[in-house]
Structures are given as structure tokens and as C-alpha cells.
Amino acid sequence: MSQKRKETQRGMFEAGGRFFVGCNYWASHAGIAMWRKWDADTVRADLKLLSENAVEVLRVFPLWPDFQPISRHTAGGQSFVEMRFGEQPLPDTPAGRAGVDPAMVERFRTLCAYAAEYRLRLIVGLVTGWMSGRMFVPPAFSGVNVLTDPTALKWEVRMVRHLVSELRNETAIAAWDLGNECNCMGPVEGNPDAAWAWTNAISAAIRVEDASRPVVSGMHSLTAFKENGLWNIGEQAELTDVLTTHPYPLFTPHCNLDPIHTMRNAFHATAETRLYGDVGRVDAFIEEAGTLGPSQSGDSNAANLMRAMLWNGFAHDCRGMLWWCAFDQDQLEETPYDWMAIERELGLIRSNREPKPALIALREFSRALDRLNLRTIPPFRRDAVVILSHEQDNWGVGYSSFLLAKQAGFDVEFATADQELPESKFYILPSVRGLRVIDRRRWLALLDKVEKGATLLVTSDGGTLQPFNAPFGVDIVWTAAPTEPVAVIGAGMELYCPVERLLKLSARDAEVLASDRDGTPVMTSRTYGKGKLLFLSVPIERHAANQPRAFLPGSESYYKIYQLAAAAAGVERSVTRTNPSLTLTEHRLARCELLVIAVNNTPDPITDAITAGAGWAFDRVLCGGRMEWGALTVPGNSAAVMVFRCNN
Question: First and final CA of the chain: distance in angstroms?
């Protein structure tokens, strides 16, 4: 799709648009059975209650077998004859030819009317065949791989086209979602382009009937490179307008290592969403998030996560956040609720219709933005590009790079080693691993950027880069298996990092910034043209991704490496602080006005000195904190919004 086409379809996801909050919705009385056990009064009461609590957007699901209840009728040898509704022939109507039950469409239309009444916008997950740990497919496709079977795909397209055609005039609908985590509906490993073909077919079916609304991916767990997974960021971005993250700590690698209300998880949703949006170069938002109920976190810490996730997502241009889900489903007997204990108490609202602390936190956040007229703010300042490379754990390394930069006091954007790189004065190639790393032409292009004035930090996980020795001014004398963690001593640091491959370096004409306990260079710097090349021989990002508590106070301060590199690159922020758990974003409001959002990523209050750089002076705190004598106090898992003005 052309860039012009994408820009016309952004709708509620428009860059700089209004940050939205909401949740995923199944009716409180029936959960996934809401369409079969339709109760219009309950649905209306649900939507009214959600609206009253500042919920603005609902993601809703026309369950596939309810909306397309077709059965395959066969003759001898199971040769196919026709599709029917049970024993009844499909009517010769548009709905019948699509295999769609018109009664279900009318129920969905009623849901749309109630949503419009309560000013709720809907994101519609069209092919909902996977939900909460159970498959839901029409009887015709029982046991069929519905992602690759041509007959299943034909009927999916027919259903999607009919639903979009029937519902496109409903004003409450803001976007069409391909479906709920459809990459869980079947394997595609046998054909490397099967995921692309399925996505293309459903996206095209939507656009044939409605070219005015954005198409949302609805997928989760995408990879940065196709070699690591056939459902990948690039191809989903190619075929849809908006990418989605479903950042649950329990299910996402490297996330379920620390308490839910501490820094790693406070940034999980934001880091993953920025990774998808930056690499895909399209809009991305937090489509499902939550703690996964009381077996993982108490109610008060669910509220803490909600506040931290909302403020970080808002500050980092994540467009919006939807919680999973609206109501507890602990009273329901159907599967998957009968099977999956973890699915029963995920709501913002209890079965007795009592709001939980997480909903109160969402409501307070939403109302604070409205009160301060802060729903739209300029994009946040970014100072470096993190380049993810081949043969590494892209998510783990990227996640750590994001967190280390936040602790070091600056912000990054993501790119991959096979993309044309954004222009920047500072690049980070973290934890390079394997024999490929980056293609020769891309590596030479990156070195050219350094030669023209950029700074590049490379951290090594034993990866091969060539040319390397001459540009970096070092020689790798030998490599071997380690016997202990490597020390990084120098430039005011004493850090230790385990390695899988020990590098014995010799400085040819590079400055040694840090050495190990034997005096062997570990971190070096060399001028290269007008720029600088920095090398660290240990994989701090990969190790931190796998190390519990790596980003909590008292852990190894790996972020000091990033601080050192940022200083070498000339990064100077307009506003700084000292505590690495208090993170800042800068948003330029006008020539002489700067908005700064400070987020406390710990459960305890933080008081820290805030320093305005040359040309800026503190003006006022808009909300969330208290400034006294240059020290800002921010409550736990919350944020303060400040304004600075130029003083010249």
C-alpha cells in the first residue's frame, strides 16, 4: 500500500492524535457465548458502566462459528456437495451466499448503536477463531488448518466482506481488526509465504468493502526478521495500517523475571510497541495488556501497572491502550473458562459490577489528561537508533537496549540491520552475535555515517563484523570459553558481565576506556573520520534481558556504558535527573516551551534533583508531582508532567 493510502486511513491512530484508553469486551453475563445468549439489556448496561468510568474504546469480537455457522455436507467418499446452516440450505441472499447468520449481524448492529449512544468507539476483530485458549471455528472447518486451507480461506473472505459491507455505515466502528491473534489459529511453517497470503486475503477483503477505516493487524509475538518467524513485523506492516502488541509478562520472553510494578514491566508494553512501530514504520498501539489476574498480581499492583503502562505508553507515542478485559468471567461454565483458571478474573469490573483498582487508575489517568487538555502532545525526542541484527534474540536485546537508554537518560528508536537507517548522530549495534550480523553493504553504509560525523557503539556477543580491526583500531588476539564473568573497569565504572565467548583484545590505535582485571581492553574508542567508533567486548544487553532484577537499584549499572557512549556522541538533554528509575521524555510544545513527562517506575515515591539545561528554566508542574527547591517528588508507579520555558 502506498504511503499516501496509509496516511488517509490512520483515523484514531493519527500521529499526534488523541491518546485513547479502553478495554477488550465480552458481555458480562456470557463471555464468549454473548452472541448465542444475547441479552440486549445487559450489553447496554455494560457499555453504560464502562463509559461512566472513562472507557473510550472497545475491541469487540464477532465469534466466527456464531456468525458463520456453516456445515459441510458430503456424499460418497466424503466428496463435498454443499455448505448448509445445519440441515437448512444457505438462502439465496447476500448473507446466505456468505454463510453468515443475519440474526447475528443484527445483534452486532445493536451493539454498535449502544456504543454510539455512550460515545464508545469500536475496533472489530473480524476473524475470531482463537480466544482465551480455545479454538472457535464453524463445523465445516473442524480439524482444518484455517490459515492455509483454500476452502476455509474462501469462506473467511466471504464472511469478512459481508460483515464489513453490512456494518460500514455504523458510526461507532473506528477500525477493522483482522481478528484475535489469528497467528494462533494454525501452523504456517510448511510454506514461508502462507502468513503473508492469509493476511493479504483478509486485508484486501476489508478494503474492497471499506477503504475509509484503518486495518489493524490484531497479531501478537511478531519477529523482527522473517528468518526468525513467518509472522513478522515487516510483512504485517506491509499489509495492514496499524500493528498491535499484546504485552503480557507471563507469556513474553524476558518479562516475567521481576515484580509486576517495577521497571522491566512498567516499560514492557511501551518498548514492544515502539519496536513494532519503528521497525514496521507504521502506527502501533497496545491492543491487549494486563497482569493476568490475581494468580500473578494483587489488585493494588494491577493498578500500579496500569498507571505506569498508561503514562509510559502516552509519553512514548503508543497511540492508545486497551486492557484485557472489561468484566470478570468467573461465573461462566463454558470452555475456555472451565479449562483455564487464568481466564476467569481478568476484568476491570468484578462479577458484582464493582470497579477494580485498575479501572479506577485508568479513569483517573483519562480524566487528568482531559482536565489538562493533554490528550495530544508532540512526539518525544529521540537521540539514538538501536539496530537489531541477524542471529540474535532481537526482542530480548532490543528490550534491554530500550531500558538501558531510559536509565541512562535518553530515548531511542529501533531499526533492523536490513533496513535503510534513519539519520542520527548516535547508533547502537547491541550484543552482535553469530556469523552474519549485518550484510556487507549495510555495514559499510553504517561506517560511512560514522565517517561523516555519527557515533556508533557496538557491544559484542561474539558476533563477526568485517571490516572491524582497522576501523575500530583493535585486534582480536584470540577467543576462548570464559571461566568467570568479565570485569569492565574504568571511566568511573566497575561492572561484571558473563559472556559465552571471551575476546582477548589488543588496542592498536584506539583509546582504552575500560579494561578487565588483567588489564586487557574491554571498551575502546577511536576517531573515525568525523565520528567515533566505540566497542564493548561483552553483551550487556543480552545478559540483562535474561538476568532477574537487572534493572532494579542495586544491580549492575550497565546503563553507565550507555551514558558514556551518549556523552561521546554529544547527546545533551534539555532536562536531566539523577535517579535511573525516574525516566523523562521531552516534547517540544513551541519554540520557547517544553513539556517533560517524568515517570516513576518503582512502587515507592522518588524525590530527585531536576536540572534544566542551558537556555531552559523550570516553569510549573501541571500534575502528578511536587517541585521544591529543584527537587521533584513523584508518587510510586505514577508520573509528573512539567513545563519548562526558554530563559533567553
Answer: 46
Backbone angles phi, psi at 113, to 5 degrees: -65, -40
Assess contact for 124 and 177: CB atoms under 8 A.
yes
Q: How far apart are CA 97 and CA 578, in angstroms?
A: 65
Using 50, 70 and 90 to split pLDDT, how confident is the model at 9?
Answer: low
Strand order in the sheet with 616-623: 582-590, 593-600, 639-646, 616-623
Q: Please tell me the predicted confidence (pLDDT) of residue 190.
A: 79
- Mean pLDDT for 55-78 is 97
Instruction: Give the closest residue to 115 by CA, choosing from 48, 67, 167, 52.
Output: 48
Name every residue whose Cβ is closer than 8 Å to that of residue 647 and which is 6 or more positions away in sequence. 615, 616, 617
Phi and psi based region of residue 237 (left: phi greater than 0; alpha: psi -120 to 50; beta: remaining): alpha
What's phi and psi for 411, nearest 5 deg?
Answer: -120, 150
Q: Which residues contact 65 (CB under 8 A, 6 or more apart)?
A: 136, 137, 138, 139
Taking only the tens place, the pLDDT of each residue in 595-639 is 999 999 999 999 999 999 999 999 999 999 999 999 999 999 999
The sign one gets for the Cα dihedral 259, 292, 298, 53 is positive
- Which three-class secondary structure string do you get for 172-224? CEEEEECCCCHHHCCCCCCCCCHHHHHHHHHHHHHHHHCCCCCEECCCCCCEC
| 218 contacts 178 by C-beta, under 8 angstroms | yes
**Cell numbers for 506:** 589488543
pLDDT confidence band for 16 (50 / 70 / 90):
low
Q: Vertex 294, ends 28 and 243: CA angle to 5°?
A: 70
Whole-number Å distance between alpha carbons of 287 and 323: 7
Mean pLDDT of 490-502: 95
Inter-helix orientation angle 102-117/150-167, to 10°: 40
Residue with cell 549495510: 442
Q: What does pLDDT average to over the chain?
A: 95
**For the segment 156-184, what is each residue's pLDDT rounded down to a tens digit?**
999 999 999 999 999 999 999 999 999 99
Contact assessment for residue 73 and residue 136, using Cβ atoms and an 8 Å cutoff: no
Q: How far apart are CA 458 and CA 431, in angstroms?
A: 7
DSSP 85: E
Instruction: Say if pTM beats, i.e. exceeds, 0.90.
Output: yes
